[in-house]
Specification:
single chain, 3 domains, six-stranded mixed β-sheet, three-stranded antiparallel β-sheet, about 10% helix
């Protein structure tokens, strides 16, 4: 018998004289193949069987690189976060990654699916996390990778903390205090865009008054 690849090239042959022949698939890449079976010296048979025993599918690998070790703080409903990874497969098969968030570093049934990440191509290497899918809290980012046959998982080295900051917390340190006023005035004096508190396109005295009203109201 002879084995041909999708291009019609012979990639294997077994031409013995016994009633059983074997062609190894160990060096074969994935794809479509054609098997030609014929009798020795033109011999025929009323029937025969073909058994295909392909090499076992090796698991793809996923390494999540962000968030890095430590904790990264982002603002609920305002910020998005770029989650990055490295994906590989021993057989160079295509892979797909799905991203989750969980308060613990593993899959325990409480993980939160990032729905728009479902089956992201592994070689894309990143996914933008929308904080609208999360509540306030600290999360590990989990990844699930598959090559269509085997699935493995990975966990981020660090955590992502999602915080709903008070409007008066100008420097986003979690507290509303005089430091926020000082930091706002510095930004205002430098004519920075973030000092345009009322969003009218101008950094002027009205922003100072509006910020002080917001700051006095605390949360």
């Amino acid at each position: 018998m002879e084995l041909y690849n999708a291009n019609g090239q012979r990639v294997g042959i077994a031409n013995g004289t016994s009633n059983s022949e074997t062609i190894s698939l160990n060096t074969m890449s994935s794809g479509y193949y054609t098997l030609r079976v014929y009798g020795y010296n033109g011999a025929t048979s009323p029937g025969y069987t073909v058994t295909i025993d392909p090499p076992s599918n090796q698991a793809p690998a996923l390494v999540i690189t962000t968030p890095p070790a430590g904790d990264t703080v982002i603002e609920l409903g305002e910020d998005s976060y770029r989650n990055e990874w490295n994906a590989s497969d021993p057989e160079d098969n295509d892979t797909w990654v799905t991203i989750y968030a969980n308060e613990t570093p593993g899959f325990d049934g409480n993980e939160i699916l990032m729905p728009t990440s479902l089956h992201t191509p592994g070689d894309q290497g990143f996914y933008i996390i929308n904080t609208a899918y999360l509540e306030e809290g600290t999360y590990y980012i989990l990844g699930e990778i598959t090559d269509g046959g085997t699935t493995t998982t990975a966990v981020s080295p660090g955590t992502l903390t999602v915080v709903d900051f008070c409007d008066g917390d100008f420097n986003r340190d979690g507290d509303v205090n005089t430091q926020d006023v000082l930091d706002f005035l510095n930004a205002w004096n430098a004519d920075e865009a973030e000092a345009d508190v009322n969003g009218d396109g101008s950094v002027d005295i009205l922003d100072v008054l509006d910020f002080l009203n917001i700051w006095n109201a605390a949360c």
